[in-house]
Amino acid sequence: MESLDPKSIIRDIKISIVEGKYKCISSYKIPNDPHEWEPCPNCELRPLVWEFDNGRSTACGCGESQYNHHSIWSESIMSQLTKI
Fold it and tell me: Residue 69's domain spans which residues?
């Protein structure tokens, strides 16, 4: 069973990054609260997060390459308000 100790989770994520298990560019970082993220059911990696001006994106080890990978996106409410 996996330990939910935040330091252990961060250590495991860093090891997986060095081993090249993640399919994403270097803009994706370890989230501030990695213990609150569930591991991916396919690759069993906790997602990395890319936060930008108008949203957020995740990446794990699923996909073909660092440019073609599974991702969950959320968009800022402000990006919708400015389209009006």
Answer: 6-81
Q: What is the pTM for the complete model shown?
A: 0.74
- Give Cβ neighbours of residue 16 (< 8 Å, ≥ 6 apart): 22, 45, 61
Whether residue 17 lies inside any domain: the answer is: yes
- Radius of gyration, CA atoms only, the chain: 14
| Per-residue confidence in pLDDT tens, the chain, 84 aa | 355 788 999 999 999 999 999 999 989 999 999 988 899 999 999 999 998 877 788 899 988 877 777 676 666 666 655 555
In a domain, 1, yes or no: no
Asked whether the beta carbons of 58 and 72 are under 8 A apart, the reply is yes
